[in-house]
Write a structure and sequence with these properties.
- A six-stranded mixed β-sheet has the order 2-1-3-4-6-5, with helices on both faces.
- It has a single domain, classed as Vaccinia Virus protein VP39 (Rossmann fold, 3-Layer(aba) Sandwich), CATH 3.40.50.150.
- The radius of gyration is 16 Å and the shape is globular.
- Helix 1 links the parallel strand 1 and strand 2.
- The chain is an alpha/beta fold.
- The chain is built from seven helices and seven strands.
- It starts with a strand and ends with a helix.
- The longest helix has 12 residues.
C-alpha cells in the first residue's frame, strides 16, 4: 500500500520531492505564487494544484494519510518584522491549515517553519501552535534540522513538527488530556 500525501503551502515542492523519494505519493498541492506554481506543474504534472488554502473546500482534497505544510514565515522570521500570529497575516495561515486538519483529520501532519517560531511573541506563538495541535487530538514531536547536513551547500535551519492522531498511539494522548499520568 502506497501512502498518500497532500501538500499545502507547497512552494516549489521541496517537501513533496522528499515524500516522493520516500515512495509516498503526492495527491494534491496548494500554492498561489505563479513562479512556484509553474515549478510544481513541471515537477508534478499530474498532481492538481488546489490554489489558495483559504478557498479550498474539504471535498476538493483527495484522500491522503499525510498532510504537510511549510506555512509562511514572514511574521515569525528574525529577518522580518516579528509580528507573530497575533498581528501578522501571513504566518497565521498556519491556523487556516489546522482548521482544515480539524475538519478532514489526516492521520499524520507535518509542519515546517523557521527557528524564529520558537521565539516569536516570547515563545507564546510556538506554544499556541503546539497546544492547538494537541487539542485536535494529535501527539507530536519537533526538531530543528539544518539543510547543510543533508547535502545542501548552505546553512538553512528549519523547525519540523511531526504529529500523529491519537489512535496512532492508542489512547495515550486522550488520557493525558484528561489528566491521567
Amino acid at each position: 500500500m502506497t501512502l498518500r500525501h497532500a501538500s499545502f503551502f507547497s512552494g516549489v515542492g521541496g517537501l513533496d520531492l522528499g515524500f516522493h523519494r520516500a515512495g509516498i505519493a503526492t495527491v494534491s498541492l496548494s500554492e498561489i505564487d505563479p513562479y512556484a506554481s509553474a515549478v510544481l506543474a513541471e515537477r508534478f504534472p499530474s498532481v492538481p494544484n488546489l490554489g489558495d488554502i483559504t478557498k479550498i473546500k474539504d471535498e476538493e482534497i483527495p484522500y491522503a494519510e499525510i498532510y504537510s505544510g511549510g506555512f509562511p514565515c514572514q511574521d515569525l522570521s528574525v529577518a522580518g518584522r516579528r509580528k507573530g500570529f497575533q498581528d501578522g497575516t501571513r504566518s497565521s495561515l498556519a491556523f487556516t491549515y489546522l482548521d482544515l486538519v480539524e475538519r478532514t483529520k489526516p492521520r499524520w501532519v507535518l509542519l515546517e517553519n523557521v527557528p524564529g517560531l520558537f521565539s516569536s511573541n516570547g515563545g507564546r506563538d510556538f506554544g499556541r501552535l503546539i497546544r492547538e495541535m494537541v487539542d485536535l487530538g494529535y501527539g507530536l514531536a519537533w526538531r530543528t534540522l539544518d539543510a547543510r547536513f543533508f547535502g545542501v551547500a548552505q546553512r538553512r535551519r528549519r523547525v519540523f513538527i511531526v504529529a500523529a492522531r491519537d489512535e496512532a498511539f492508542g489512547n495515550l494522548g486522550a488520557e493525558r488530556r484528561r489528566g491521567s499520568p
